[in-house]
Amino acid sequence: MTVDDVPLESVPAVIGDYEICVVKSFRMNSDVLSRAKRMKLIMQFGVGLEGVDINAATKHGIKVAKIPGGATGNAASCAEMAIYLILGLLRKQNQMKISVEQKKLGEPTGDNLQGKTVFILGFGNIGIHLAKRLRPFDVKILATKRSWGRLAQDSSKSEAPSVENGGYSDLVDERGNHADILKFASKADIVVCCLAMNSETIGIVNNDFISVMRKGAILINISRGGLLDYDAVLTHLKSGHLGGLGIDVAWTEPFDPDDAILKFPDVIITPHVAGVTKLSYRGMAKVVGDVALQLHAGKPFTGIEIVN
């Protein structure tokens, strides 16, 4: 078994030599996939599959798989990042930096997470881990999920808290589905976007959504940049209706450091690193290695979720 680290510009020329491809920051489009004559499986090194043309892969007889975040530490890492962004905005991270530079003590005046209402938009593996970590802060947790009768794919095998038989009562104070998102947004001090991005969810946090949020509420996105409508976010930052924005993902990546959104003091952006931790990378690397050995031995794949 041979493992190669191929430069991005060389992928189209050599992809026909490989049986497994692990994608990180390369777009596997129809043209590239048509050259992958020996390819059996494509995996994304992460939980998203936006970089893979799944329909084209299916047409060429290639399986595409996700690495579930709960079992690798990715979901836990993303949940911790969400809390970092929340606390950074509440305690005014950017303004504190200015106070240090100006040798000022005792300012700015921050705010507590304690007592806040947090709306987790998308209660999958990341949402579950986030709720578990928010509980000790004494917050009220609202959450929406497409179907509360179905567990996250790998929750029974992950370090996520037990949610068998729909038993979310210890983690969520109020739960709803897609029809409840505006109602929940209107009740929350903090909204955390944890949804997968697809044709149904792209731009879901739009002008209507942000308009019903409480004045001064905080918006966090650790999922995919396209879930937020850029113009709506910018408009509500300008008006002061949106009290803070914390994003690990952006509409275009890498994000333009001169973008107007970054001019506001209550904005924190991180460079798509929520899942980039030693724990998460070790977990995902083990899954990739195990799957490669399974393919080599002709055994069924375990530890991954085939999507086609």
Automatic annotation (TrEMBL):
<keyword id="KW-0560">Oxidoreductase</keyword>
<feature type="domain" description="D-isomer specific 2-hydroxyacid dehydrogenase NAD-binding">
    <location>
        <begin position="84"/>
        <end position="274"/>
    </location>
</feature>
<dbReference type="InterPro" id="IPR029753">
    <property type="entry name" value="D-isomer_DH_CS"/>
</dbReference>
<protein>
    <submittedName>
        <fullName>Phosphoglycerate dehydrogenase</fullName>
    </submittedName>
</protein>
<dbReference type="Pfam" id="PF00389">
    <property type="entry name" value="2-Hacid_dh"/>
</dbReference>
<dbReference type="Pfam" id="PF02826">
    <property type="entry name" value="2-Hacid_dh_C"/>
</dbReference>
<comment type="similarity">
    <text>Belongs to the D-isomer specific 2-hydroxyacid dehydrogenase family.</text>
</comment>
<feature type="domain" description="D-isomer specific 2-hydroxyacid dehydrogenase catalytic">
    <location>
        <begin position="10"/>
        <end position="295"/>
    </location>
</feature>
<dbReference type="GO" id="GO:0051287">
    <property type="term" value="F:NAD binding"/>
</dbReference>
<dbReference type="GO" id="GO:0004617">
    <property type="term" value="F:phosphoglycerate dehydrogenase activity"/>
</dbReference>
<dbReference type="InterPro" id="IPR006140">
    <property type="entry name" value="D-isomer_DH_NAD-bd"/>
</dbReference>
<dbReference type="InterPro" id="IPR036291">
    <property type="entry name" value="NAD(P)-bd_dom_sf"/>
</dbReference>
<dbReference type="InterPro" id="IPR006139">
    <property type="entry name" value="D-isomer_2_OHA_DH_cat_dom"/>
</dbReference>
